[in-house]
Amino acid sequence: MILPAAGKSVRFGGGKLLAPLGGKPLLRHSVAAFARRADVQLIVVATQGDLARHVHASDSVTVCQGGSCRAESVFNALKCVPPEIEWVAVHDAARPLVSQELIDRTLAAAIQHGAAVPAVAVSQTIKQADGPLPAAVQKTVPREKLWAVQTPQIARRKDLLAAFEACPIPLAQVTDDVQLLELTGRPVWLVEGEQSNIKITTPMDLFLAEAIFSRWHMRPI
Q: Which of 23, 54, 140, 158 is spaced 20 to 30 A from 82 at the CA atom?
């Protein structure tokens, strides 16, 4: 599995993946969610700079050079995955609260359909406008068929690698991993995501994640 972790965390103010959650850095939670699984043979963390020193490398965890954009980081990491590994999961390093049930659900759908990604329904009204704001509304976008995708995004290694090599647009314009499969005509299926599987982008997100994490650990055994 692949963890792209080379972003600059501008909206967070820097240092996001080392920010503490439950007493441990965010990145360690994301790594641990997959390291504990028997079906995960290798974790590749694509990063750069000082963050690489905080990754505990082992036989099952390795580090590669991150790229100038997310897709480039994933591509670099994908090249480190041995051909004998059939399925690859790409997970946002800044989603530390991913559950085992969500990983299971996404993997099962990927095996059945070729590629899968968790998603949640868009609940807010969406307006289209030329930014930055303030700006005039161009139209209201119907939300009935809109889904906000999460990670992990799971596909066959060979399919994802072929999609990267045939990508018809610059990698900087690729906003998520399964988009590459869509651009090359491969099917992608959505499965039910989880509201708790939040991506830490701003300090407020971390505050919410801490509240969720604390509530989880207050559950009766």
A: 54
Helix (H) or strand (E) holding 65: strand 61-65
* Beta bridge pairs of residue 25: 20
What pLDDT digit, counting tens, does each position of 131-147 carry? 899 999 999 999 999 99
Judge whether 27 lies within some domain: yes
Q: Where are the beta strands (DSSP E) in 69-217?
A: 87-90, 115-121, 126-129, 137-141, 147-149, 153-156, 189-192
Q: By residue range, what is the domain housing residue 32? A: 2-216
- pTM, 2 dp: 0.93
Number of domains in the chain: 1
On whether residue 221 sits in a domain, the answer given is: no
Is position 189 within any domain?
yes
pLDDT per residue as tens digits for the range 74-115: 999 999 999 999 999 999 999 999 999 999 999 999 999 999
Give φ, ψ of 160 to 5 degrees. Answer: -65, -40
CATH number of residue 11's parent domain: 3.90.550.10
130 CB contacts (<8 Å, ≥6 apart)? 136, 138
Full DSSP string of 15-31 = -GGGSEETTEEHHHHHH
